[in-house]
Description:
Chain A is mainly α. Chain A has helices at about 1-25, 25-35, 35-65, 70-85, 90-100, 105-135, 135-145, 150-185, 200-210, 210-240, 260, 270-300, 300-340, 350-380, 380-395, 405-415, 415-445, 450-460, 465-495, 515-525, 525-560; strands at about 185-190, 190-195, 500, 510.
Amino acid sequence: MVARKRLRWVGLVLIALGVSFAIAFPDSARQAATLPLLASFSLGRMAAAYLLALVFAIAYGTTMALSKRAAVVMLPLLDVLQSVPILGFFPAALVFFVATFQGHPAGLEIAVIFLIFTSMAWNMAFGVYESITTIPKDLEDAARVFALGDWLRFRRLVFPAMVPKLVYNSMLSWSNGWFFLVASEIFTAFGATYARPGLGAFIADRGDAGDVAGILIGVGVLAAVVLTLDALIWRPLSIWSERFRIDTTGTGQPVPRVSGVYERLAWLPRFTRLRQWLGSRVRPLMERYSRLATRFDRATSAHRQVMRAIRWIDLGMFLAIFVVVVGSGLAGLSTLLLKPLPAAAYTIPEATLRSFSRLALAYAVSLAWTIPAAVVIARNPRASRVLTPVIEVSASIPATALLPLILGFAIAIAPSQGTGTELAAFLIALFAMQWYLLFNLIAGVRAIPGDLDEAARAFGLRGLAYWRRLLVPAMIPSLLTGSITAWGAGWNALVVSEYIRFGGVRPYTVTGLGSLIDIATFDVPDSEVLLLSILTMVLVVLAMNKLLWRPLFKRAIKRYRLEG
Amino acid sequence: MAAPFLEVKHVSKSYFEAGKEFKVLETVGFELAERDFVCIVGPSGCGKSTLLRIIVGLDTPTAGSVRFEGKPLVPENPQVAMVFQSFALFPWLTVEQNVELGLEARHDPPERRHAQARKFIDAVGLAGFENAFPRELSGGMKQRVGIARALAVEPLLLCMDEPFSSLDALTAQSLRDEILQLWSTPDLPPKAVLMVTHSIEEAVYMADRVIVLSNRPGRVVAELEIDLPRPRNRKEPEFFGWVDEIYSLIV
Lengths: 564, 251
């Protein structure tokens, strides 16, 4: 009840703010009138990329899980793709698509969708693979004993089993996607600016014009879109996905029905008549569908071959693409390494070190504030009530959308432009990293079982001892999960944080791997430096994942996991 | 003479690990006739569950064969259904959807599926729980769903793998009685029941015939006709006599 009232108040305040904004800044308001359209363009791109990613993830993950032979190639490939900072390839890919379509808008559109796709697909594919391979054996047996055909088995066993991880990873993918969308809707190369109408382009354009009100409106609309999607799609979906969790231990626990989630929106008009009318229309369709599905099942012999054919065509397609990409990459690399290194290549070690320290600093700052914040939010209901909406709104804004604001702020408070740019680069990295840590940590603290907490208190654990013996150990697994994601986001952010182009002739740059990549793509096209920089970034990230995070994570899971 | 209902002939099963052979079953053979309720008992690890898996087609024997009504057993035989120790219910399907699983696989039209599912949900006493999810049920109710799911496909042979071991003692006993009750109803489908258990008392309580397997590798030590009248009383000396005899065979 309280939450609903509060929500209504927040809505009213937002509307009031919007109206006063429109009166105070009529020009920006006129601009803002086009925003719903722009937002729908951006949303359309996201949806297209997400659908592609979803189909890809299910096809790739299923194939990998079903065929051990395919998994030998596909699993390590996915592992690399997942850990590689995609944004490193981003400038090159944009230029590639634009050049291929000779600047035609369609090329740009495809480029943007492709890039968002690459930021969404890998973790989802991994989720699918993990879910299928962890289906309990007795369910597999039951499916075989009751002679489920391929399609029915997929509908009743395989797909439901992947729902929880698919939903969780979809949420992650969408927030990755927004980050990339904003970065890719507008960019400058070869002295020309390419843009597709959308929220990201709008914000960047307002930034160029120095129109703070416009930026704020754009960011606000973006946040509103993200939050609305979250409330209407992802929350209900993630509650619904609870039903698909496999735990055979539970008895007598109620399974959440989706309708409960919409109760919170009970104040919205319900359109009962319309819904009944629709229902009476849809029900026969559903019945017809289930009949069709049955008939489809019955045509197993033909259908089994078709399914297999689709799987193989799919696999073949992706393998072909990967072979071409990897092959040409290797060929390029070998010719590159045979030649003497270009002069700029010698700056790579220093750039790497600088980028790394920037990220490490942002990580340290994130840790310093998120750990206490997470404990307070998870433990104190009042703090949680007040802070959760604030944090959710802030986290819904992708760091890339804040670019103009952060840059403006950093330059305003810094003594010189150099330190200002450096500060901006750090702040963007911070914004890209901190939320992953915070949300994972909150979940970690909330997952501490009540009896453990009571036991700790009963034995008089207080203050430092309480932190040392209960909180910190309980947080470690989620801290590591958050750290892995945060560092991944941080590496991705480098390409946009170290090289910021606004209005003026000269971009704001600091020394680093990200700016090396950007400069070698946009300013002084140099494929050798570009390739070497990307390669360095990939190697550093892979090394960190393999040598630092994975071993740590394995140990943490063994020691600190809070399950029986 | 007609072929036996179920014929298990010289079935052996070995696993190979690092070049070493682990024998699980060695030349196991027995027959099942119609209207047989047979229990397989043996010490844990004697391969009795493996034997059941081979009979329903989930596993293949290293040697030997399983023939069902004279024909070699095809994997996923629709005339054989199974009840699992762990219930093996699909957590995301309602009780009714779980029960309909095998019917759906058989491409029954929806109306028939619903009618059939309701009939067997009623039969196991779960009327009113059609739309509940397995997670919302107690262990005993879950296993009732498992039994309804197996009966709904109207199998000729019903196989049960330790169906009561995950239940508490009281629930298990009442479910045993219900199974026997269902078994004595003549119009219910299965022509024979084959049940694996580690509990000798359970076997003597339920079965017409008990097949005793030895320690690994499992061999048939004895086949005993339990001629006690039904309903059986666990307190009678004859009952104890059978339990003691099987106990001495296993140890």
